[in-house]
Specification:
Elements (H helix, E strand, L loop, with lengths): L35 E5 L2 H10 L4 E6 L3 E5 L5 E6 L11 E4 L2 H14 L4 E7 L3 E7 L5 E7 L4 H11 L3
Parallel strand pairs: 1-4, 5-8
Antiparallel strand pairs: 2-3, 3-4, 6-7, 7-8
């Protein structure tokens, strides 16, 4: 027996397809199952980058204390006052997007902070990934299903392993 099942009906991420349409930004309230806290020395600058570059919106703010950002449902980021890292960490946080958003996100981020993006790169797990280093030196990955079909990946893997 298997404990896995298709759960696209509870996810804001659209069913993977090359013509997938992103969901609307979700402005409702819920108990957050996961979120990222990002320390920043400049809440306004950081919020501007995450909003204009990465497509988040300001769900609510407490001046000089907190900015709660969101994109889709369950894509929450809390910007909090603190010391920024001197360099990007090896750990990253990934946010789903759709293929049609990849170029616009890269362009918007590059306009705000030239040189902050890398990619997009096709990954072996069948996604296209754009890496962005934010003003706080957070490493953010925007990830979308690639146009390569999973059976093509399996075929390549089998060929590499002599199967």
């Amino acid at each position: 027996m298997t404990d896995t099942y298709p759960a696209f009906d509870i996810s804001p991420v659209p069913v993977p397809a090359t013509d997938a349409v992103p969901p609307e930004q979700f402005r409702g309230l819920y108990g957050m199952p996961m979120f990222v806290s990002v320390p920043t020395s400049d809440l306004a600058e950081s919020a501007d980058f995450w909003i204009r570059g990465l497509g988040f919106f300001d769900l609510f703010s407490v001046p000089d204390r907190l900015t709660h950002l969101r994109r889709w449902a369950f894509q929450d980021v809390l910007l909090v006052p603190g010391e920024c890292a001197d360099s990007p960490p090896s750990v990253s946080v990934s946010f789903a997007c759709v293929l049609s958003q990849m170029d616009q996100i890269a362009q918007a981020c590059e306009e705000l902070r030239p040189g902050c993006t890398s990619g997009p790169h096709l990954k072996p797990w069948n996604s296209l990934e754009l890496e962005i280093v934010t003003p706080e030196n957070a490493r953010v990955i925007m990830t979308a299903r690639s146009s390569v079909r999973p059976e093509q990946c399996r075929g390549r893997a089998s060929a590499r392993h002599g199967n």
